[in-house]
Amino acid sequence: MEIWHFSHEHPLTLCITEDAGEPCNGCSRPIFDLGYVCNDCGFLLHKKCAKLPQKVHHRLHPKHPLTLLFNSMKTFECNVCNKTGLGFAFQCSECNYNMDVTCFLRNQPCPDVPPLEGKTRKLHHFSHDHALTLCPLTQQSKKNCKGCGQQISGPAYCCKECDQLALHKSCAQWPRQTEHPFHPSHSLTLFTESPYTSGQVLCDACGKPIGGFMYHCNKCSFDLDLVCVSLTPSLKHEKHDHLLTFFEEINNQVQCNSCGKPCPENLYRCVNCNFNVHSTCLPFPSTLKHRYHPHTLTLKDSTPKDDPSGIPCAACGKKISSKARAYYCAECSYGVHLECVVSEEKLLQDIARIQEELDAIAAQLKGLTKMQA
Fold first, then answer.
1. Does residue 351 fall inside a structural domain?
2. Residues pairing with 34 in the sheet
3. In what order do the strands lie in the sheet with 97-99?
4. Kind and range of the H or E run holding 62
5. Given CB 3.0 to 4.6 Å as the disulfide criterion, which of 104, 270, 295, 331 pairs with 275?
6. Residue 250: domain span
7. Does residue 198 contact residue 204 with C-beta atoms inside 8 Å?
8. Count: domains in the chain
9. Verdict on whether the full-model pTM lies above 0.90
10. pLDDT digit string (tens) for 223-238?
11. How far apart are CA 180 and CA 184, in angstroms?
């Protein structure tokens, strides 16, 4: 079987690879069975990587569609796992957001596959009696998503029979069950209405009332709204064992574990342990040098006044919250999230540690060779 793939100039043939374990040029993971091979130059793709969509909406980045791009020479940093990748990347050009193939496949929703009917895509969602039709909506439509409660601007599934339901494409594709780091002890089940007799339900991550869909643990009465379930822990704090997640604001009455004062906004939080710390209480140096910028960056408690709309983070591409602490170069309107600085430093430390271990192993092998000689 032969195909032409956008990532390569020659045709690719589906066959068993001659050298088992050779890396895929798309995701860099080894191929042990069938793969698409270029007989001219040895280019390799997993069968599943060759079938990845070139444009897709994903629940971890619901604002804009992601485009599958290929670059064999330039690395990128995945915004989900913070690992450096090479080859295929699902990218949002508007936000400079990247997702590697592994994270894309790992976080794929598992709904019933909507059948194609003519030129429209239909979906039978478990929350509604009628079939939903995928259609584009603008802000002028003034429709809010039944799942997350936020206004819809972009592709959405709508009911054309009763006009009572509209769902973001990403919200319609959430799986019925999921595992989440905010509640690692049990899996969570998707509910379209409150599971409680009172009808009222608060999100256990942010404390805000949930008016749409929610993920619920029946054993622990634990609940997450669809906004918080899409958040990813990213910051390691020296006083806590788990990664912390940044929240712009929460409704819970919590105290900072560092200074003891109330902690309602701009905090890093471990939901599972209820560990909270002000971003201003984190032990960061007042200035630092960033490896991708020639000038010294200064730690500030809010966005500089000359950039009130927010500066995109030079590491992850997401806009820095106007009230969040971050490192800035005022001269260049250059900024980096605190958590991104920590992730990069941890990566460099891990590389240095691995190199030390490899050097030690090499020295041991050299010593054994001399003894055998």
1. no
2. 16
3. 55-58, 61-77, 84-92, 97-99
4. strand 61-77
5. 270
6. 235-281
7. no
8. 6
9. no
10. 999 989 888 777 777 7
11. 6
